[in-house]
Design goal:
Number of helices: 12
CATH architecture of the domain at 190-344 and 360-451: Alpha-Beta Complex
Structural class: alpha+beta
Number of strands: 20
Organism: Oxalobacter paraformigenes
Strand content: 15-25%
Protein name: C-terminal processing peptidase
CATH superfamily of the domain at 190-344 and 360-451: 2-enoyl-CoA Hydratase, Chain A, domain 1
GO biological process, one term: signal transduction
Shape: globular
CATH class of the domain at 190-344 and 360-451: Alpha Beta
Pfam family, one: CtpB_N-like
Keywords: Hydrolase, Protease, Serine protease
Length: about 475
């Protein structure tokens, strides 16, 4: 069983991908290499020599070769990448839920970093940083012109190192300058609360190594205080993915033992695999099954899964499994559409290659690559529409994205110019939704559905659906579309 877990492939988005248990040391050295194209290698050597002799200033050999490797891998698809020492360490920290930083959830507004929320008991929280603050400078670097990822990288760093933030706060005429000391931040991937008597909200923000055990703890805590749970909302909105064992474990919580969760298919024999609701696929080398002490009713309690365009990869595995087994109602907006598997191959003690090695398929055989999961009930973020989410890119919008293997997203699914202008105008007044509160429109619609009350559905039309979505104030029946199977 340990070997099965060791070879589980990894699924994720950006740096939020699983790692340690599946890193395969010296894997490439053990394989028989393919014949090398001598003519192309000769050209590479010629270009290398030309740069060394003619470039305006000297360039280190290591830099040239590292960049050549990075370019070769990244040219394949958006999710394959060469991981240098820093990137490899960040990946490991991301999957373990730890990193050196300040403890701020952030977004972007008018070119500046906007604080969504400081994380409790972190340097940012103790310094008095508030939701809505705009970070305009990081040390001496202006935030204007930086991407969010670039700004986040500057804010992260080794524990016990300092960074100075310049902050603009509403109704204050002068900027606030704060010097903070970075600490090791432990991100909790699971939150929960009772929304109202009998109805619980479980949020998984990211699939990490502790996610399954943490979710079990939250469920048991809820049932201990509220034994008569009538419905659960599993919130996967803006969950970018993470490690595959975490997704298998979360889906297994709600499904019968031995249920098929996901399958993968690629060139390598080990990439042709199926994963079931069994401890060897989600518990690893641990002796005890973390799901063993869950209340029995968790397998039958009505469930709504909330998703949106930010739900990707491992989130889509969970949503797809629960949808195919008809175990939950999927609600929200169409997901990101990342249906590919990345495997981490370590090539030195400090570096690795993150390589797309397979597509994954839901239990019914659906490939969601570049398509995503279409909810059973389409519900916008607000009563007025889907806000800024309508402008976010999906997998199908990424350059060099992997094809679906069956059919591509249709051109008519794209925004037309008028719709894009309308969304841009609406985005000017956009305020981040406070998930898990009574102001969370999608959550309130999920509670209504669990109670059998009318739900206000979106008027958005998605080509993949075979029936037109109607306003649930007059028709609250779940779509009876048959599950689409792969050909």
């Amino acid at each position: 069983m340990g070997n099965k877990f060791r070879n589980i492939l990894l699924v994720g988005l950006g740096i939020v991908v699983g790692v340690v248990a599946s890193v395969q040391f010296s894997a490439m050295a053990q394989k028989q290499t393919a014949p090398l194209p001598l003519e192309e290698l000769r050209q590479l050597a010629d270009v290398f020599g030309l740069i060394k002799s003619d470039y305006v200033e000297p360039v280190e050999d290591k830099k040239l070769l590292t960049e050549a490797i990075s370019g070769m891998v990244s040219s394949l698809d958006p999710h394959s990448a060469y991981l240098d020492k820093k990137a490899f360490q960040e990946l490991k920290e991301g999957t373990q839920g730890r990193f050196g930083g300040l403890g701020i959830e952030v977004g972007m507004e008018d070119g500046y970093v906007k604080v969504i929320s400081p994380i409790e008991d972190t340097p940012a929280y103790r310094a008095g940083i508030k939701p809505g603050d705009l970070i305009t400078k990081l040390d001496s670097t202006s935030v204007k012109g930086l991407s969010l990822d670039e700004a986040v990288k500057i804010m992260r760093g080794d524990p016990n190192t300092k960074i100075t933030l310049t902050i603009a706060r509403k109704n204050m005429t002068k900027p606030i300058v704060l010097t903070l000391v970075r600490e090791e931040i432990q991100v909790k991937s699971v939150k929960s609360k009772i929304i109202e008597p009998g109805y619980a909200w479980l949020r998984v923000a990211q699939f990490q190594e502790p996610t399954v055990e943490d979710l079990v703890t939250h469920i048991n805590r809820i049932y201990a205080k509220n034994p008569n749970i009538k419905g659960i909302v599993l919130d996967l909105r803006n969950d970018p993915g993470g490690i595959l064992p975490g997704a298998i474990g979360v889906a297994s919580i709600f499904l019968p033992k031995d249920s098929l969760i996901v399958s993968t298919n690629g060139q390598l024999p080990e990439s042709k695999a199926t994963f079931y609701a069994r401890p060897e696929y989600y518990a690893g080398r641990t002796i005890n099954d973390p799901l063993a002490k869950l209340p029995a009713s968790i397998k039958t309690v009505p469930v709504v899964v909330l998703v949106n365009i930010g739900s990707a990869s491992a989130s889509e595995i969970v949503a797809g499994a629960l949808q195919d087994h008809k175990r939950a109602t999927i609600m929200g907006t169409q997901t990101f559409g990342k249906g590919s598997v990345q495997t981490i191959r370590q090539i030195s003690p400090d570096t690795a290659v993150k390589l797309t090695t397979a597509r994954y398929y839901t239990p019914s055989g659906r490939s969601i690559q570049a398509k995503g999961i279409v909810p059973d009930l389409l519900v916008d973020e607000t009563p007025e529409g889907d806000g800024i989410n309508g402008l976010r890119i999906r997998e199908a919008d990424l350059t060099k994205h992997l094809t679906n293997g069956e059919e591509e997203a249709k051109p008519e699914d794209r925004l037309d110019t008028a719709e894009e202008i309308r969304l841009l105008e609406n985005a000017k007044n956009y305020k981040p939704i406070e998930y898990g509160t009574k102001k969370d429109f999608q959550l309130m619609q999920a509670i209504n559905h669990l109670k059998g009350k009318p739900v206000k559905l979106s008027k958005t039309k998605i080509e993949d659906r075979k029936t037109e979505v109607k306003d649930a104030s007059t028709d609250n029946k779940k779509s009876s579309d048959p599950v689409e199977k792969s050909k």
